[in-house]
Amino acid sequence: MTTAESSPAHSLLRFELLVLYAIALLAFCNIAVFYSFNIYMERLGIAAEWRGPLLGMEPLAALFLRPLISPRLHLRNGVTVMAGSLVLIIAALLAYRFATTVPTLALVRLLHGTGFVALVSGAAAVFVHFIPPGKSAAAFGVFTIMTQAPFAIMPPFMEMMLRHTGNEAVAYAWVSLIMLPALALLYPLRKRVERLPEEPDTKLATGLDRIRESLLPRNVRRLLLVNLLLFMAVTTVYFFIKDYALSIRMDRPGLFFTFYICAMLTVRAFGSPFFDRLDKRKGITFALLLLAACMIFLGETKAQWAVLGLAVIYGSCLGAAMPLLGSAVYLASPPQSRGLNTNLMLSTIDAGYVFGPLLGGALLASGLMPSGLFLVAAGFAVLASIVTWATRFQMESGSPKAEPAGS
Length: 407
What we know:
It holds the Pfam family MFS_1. With 407 residues, the chain is mostly helical. Helices cover 75% and strands 1% of the residues. The chain has a single domain, classed as Growth Hormone, Chain: A (Up-down Bundle). It has a two-stranded antiparallel ribbon with strand order 1-2.
């Protein structure tokens, strides 16, 4: 039995969850500022064939590190890991000002990725212990609101900062200051965690054996694949939408992020109470197909108003699909594997952030127009919908149950 299940506090707004929501918000603020990193590297004179790998270098660190550290994370050490990771993130943000070559940028991106993956993995390991019974989709909905809100706030904020600093690296250094409140919030969280009884998962096997055990349910494996395909699509749009916006002479490309994130947050804020009662198989499949259609039209339109309208649809689809997927993985997992599987789900996001820009950068370098990348992204979304529809969700009170191990 998890801590949340044995606690009388069944609110999504209990103190521990509020702290974790805030840390997630601040953590993703330091990622959202890199939406124009490809343009920044171009100004530095970085060759096109290196820009894709450097975009993916930070999530590449996460891709390799998260599976190594996730089986060793639990309620007891999660807060300590978060504190150390925040120090690494602050150091990395300050170091961008001194990294102007491929080797130095690669080093800073790897340092940044190491700090970020440790922060989010530690937060996820603690977060699952405080999810109220019967409210997993709503809890993941709020958590993902915190992870996505920065992508609406930070791009226009960065555009404003660039008008004053004139340089992205200087702006990144200023962004390091917002990590300081996250460090301060960890102290009261640690005190709360220390008062809790020791969790049984601190004594579980670590390493690959635990990962293999957590992946035994077929639904878990399929849902992780769906999440990977989804983020291959999303990151392709995320990293190259500014290139496309500039090619159609869109005045304020940062507005795309504002519109789609605001739509996403609206869906999550008003839809979260219903997500736990929704047929997740149908809901995820429909959202993915509509997302694919949106990406296809996005590559065909040249009008700014149409791009922003599609941004609203795009954000609405993600606003439904992502918390439903998070809830489905949580519910399909045995209780002792929920923290690990949540981190494995984050690993598929890492993989998307690595291979999305790698593929996109390679295709652009080969001569593909930015609009063509959106057709590739749509293909990933369609594949994700097919895998979702092929997954047999066993329903109980509107939620899928875990399949028997090895099924």
